[in-house]
């Protein structure tokens, strides 16, 4: 055992979880060294019934474990999880009300959008943005494949970008293929933990490949491993990029998960509705049929986009349907 290891046994170390395979966690310590860590004892995080107590992105304290085997010297035991700034979850496959935490402490998520190849509808964008707001994760819209659009399509992109910028979301037109504006994306990623999301075929892999060509090898290896391994395991993994940026890759996870919320809460996740809601006559206004609703007034004068309001109604109706269905099945 090296002197360093002996010191480490007594000193608590702090690191970030890069990968988890169920019982082992790969933790990168502040000294840049990676340790394989376990958990001892029970971890309970208030308010979360989760199948996994520690997830990728977590900041943890751990101690090195004393082992006799020279090869095993880089193992540790996690004893503390630092407070999370946010986390994304997936409902467990079984019907217990448990959730699986996919990743934690995400600084931003980039949603890749394409007009027609594949089509990305505003309802999808809006549902995504609502989820990001509810999770407390900054969302950025990347309109990809701008090298393929004709003038008319470019106008549509401009219209969409203006719509979402007005609400406060950053929007960038890019081409993952030609590299156009990818430098802007890289600049936004600097010093942060990012995720990429979007429909299949929008260009997520192409973009990551353009950002960091060497990384592809690793991500492919992981998804192959994923396909061969137990299909119930959710793999997420964090990667360090060459320019002080981190990404969390979540192969096999489609979409961004769902967040349960009350009907009354939904408007709070549409920032432009939230801003106006104090002007509605009723403080519990759902902005549907109520009189003197500031949101509907804003809609009438074109201050709020109809596409946004339509998405809002759709989500509310969906929630009601979901609610009725649950009531029904529970009887
Ligand atoms: N012309 C053009 N094609 C692109 C661009 N970005 C991606 N593509 C193409 O779109 C197709 C899908 O890209 P992928 O990177 O595999 O998409 P993905 O989002 O990773 O898809 P999944 O892995 O299914 O989720 C590929 O044929 C890419 O070459 C772009 O900016 N311009
Ligand atoms: Zn209202």
From TrEMBL:
Cofactor: Zn(2+)
Repeat in keyword set: no
Gene that specifies this protein: rsgA
Binding locations of GTP: 144-147, 198-206
Protein name, entry field: Small ribosomal subunit biogenesis GTPase RsgA
Annotated compartments: Cytoplasm
Positions of transmembrane segments: none
EC number: 3.6.1.-
Subunit relationships: Monomer. Associates with 30S ribosomal subunit, binds 16S rRNA.
Residues covered by the EngC GTPase domain: 104-254
Family: Belongs to the TRAFAC class YlqF/YawG GTPase family. RsgA subfamily.
Alphabetic keyword roster: Cytoplasm, GTP-binding, Hydrolase, Metal-binding, Nucleotide-binding, Ribosome biogenesis, RNA-binding, rRNA-binding, Zinc
Protein residues bound to Zn(2+): 280, 285, 287, 293
Any one Gene Ontology cellular component term annotated for this protein: cytoplasm
Gene Ontology biological process terms from the UniProt entry: ribosomal small subunit biogenesis
Role, per record: One of several proteins that assist in the late maturation steps of the functional core of the 30S ribosomal subunit. Helps release RbfA from mature subunits. May play a role in the assembly of ribosomal proteins into the subunit. Circularly permuted GTPase that catalyzes slow GTP hydrolysis, GTPase activity is stimulated by the 30S ribosomal subunit.
Top EC group: hydrolase
Co-factor binding details: Binds 1 zinc ion per subunit.
Residue ranges constituting the CP-type G domain according to the UniProt record: 95-256
NCBIfam families (alphabetical): ribosome small subunit-dependent GTPase A
GO molecular function (one): metal ion binding
Pfam families the UniProt entry points to: RsgA_GTPase, RsgA_N
């Amino acid at each position: 055992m090296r002197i360093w290891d002996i010191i480490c046994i007594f000193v608590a170390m702090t690191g970030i979880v890069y990968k988890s395979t169920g019982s082992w966690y790969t933790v990168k310590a502040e000294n840049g060294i990676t340790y394989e860590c376990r958990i001892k004892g029970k971890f309970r995080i208030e308010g979360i019934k989760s199948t996994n107590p520690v997830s990728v992105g977590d900041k943890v304290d751990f101690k090195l474990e004393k082992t006799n085997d020279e090869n095993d010297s880089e193992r540790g035991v996690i004893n503390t999880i630092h407070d999370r700034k946010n986390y994304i979850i997936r409902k467990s496959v079984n019907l217990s009300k448990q959730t699986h935490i996919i990743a934690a402490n995400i600084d931003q998520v980039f949603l890749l959008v394409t007009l027609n190849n594949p089509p990305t509808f505003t309802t999808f964008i809006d549902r995504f943005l609502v989820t990001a707001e509810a999770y407390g994760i900054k969302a950025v819209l990347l309109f990809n494949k701008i090298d393929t659009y004709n003038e008319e399509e470019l106008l549509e992109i401009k219209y969409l970008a203006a719509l979402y910028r007005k609400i406060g979301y950053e929007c960038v037109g890019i081409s993952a293929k030609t590299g156009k504006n990818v430098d802007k994306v890289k600049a936004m990623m600097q010093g942060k933990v990012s995720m990429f999301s979007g429909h299949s075929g929008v260009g997520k892999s192409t973009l990551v490949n353009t950002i960091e060509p060497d990384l592809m090898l690793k991500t492919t290896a992981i998804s192959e491993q994923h396909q061969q391994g137990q299909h119930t395991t959710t793999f997420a993994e964090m990667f360090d990029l060459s320019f002080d940026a981190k990404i969390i890759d979540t192969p096999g996870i489609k979409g961004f998960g769902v967040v349960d919320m009350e009907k009354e809460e939904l408007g709070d996740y549409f920032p432009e509705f939230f801003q106006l809601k104090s002007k509605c006559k009723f403080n519990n206004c759902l902005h549907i049929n109520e009189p003197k609703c500031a949101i509907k007034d804003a809609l009438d004068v074109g201050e709020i986009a109809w596409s946004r309001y339509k998405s809002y109604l759709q989500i509310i109706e969906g929630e009601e349907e979901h609610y009725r269905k649950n009531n029904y099945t529970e009887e």
